[in-house]
Amino acid sequence: MSPRPSRVTPHELCVDWPGTRSNDPVAEIARQFVLNLRGAMGSRSIREVARETGVDRASIGALLNGLSWPDIATLAKLELGLKASLWPGVVD
Predict the structure, then answer these.
(1) Is it the case that residue 92 has pLDDT exceeding 80?
(2) % helix / strand / coil in the chain, to the nearest 5?
(3) Where are the domains of the chain?
(4) Structure-derived torsion over alpha carbons of residues 36, 39, 44, 49, reported in degrees to the nearest 10
(5) Is the pLDDT of residue 2 over 90?
(6) CA angle, corner 51, sides to 48 and 55, nearest 5?
(7) Nearby residues of 77 by Cβ (< 8 Å), 6 or more positions away
(8) What pTM was computed for the model?
(9) Which of 16, 51, 59, 86 has the fewest CB atoms within 10 Å around its CB?
């Protein structure tokens, strides 16, 4: 089995992650997800959110910094644990 090909990270597709809109539509959805996640976190630390959601704190940090793409299991755990809808859906 060959290794999974590497792909560009979300922050590499955005001039100023996550402050500036991305021209890449997939990266833009990831950016909106991160903005929603930050809002749902409020003043809680990454460590607190990790405890509440069951998502590893390194994974949360990588998402917030645009170093990884969110997967469906992580999305579900974050939404359930934070009791918030984080996925932005289709972005124009």
Answers:
(1) no
(2) 50, 0, 50
(3) 23-82
(4) -20
(5) no
(6) 110
(7) 53, 54, 55
(8) 0.90
(9) 16
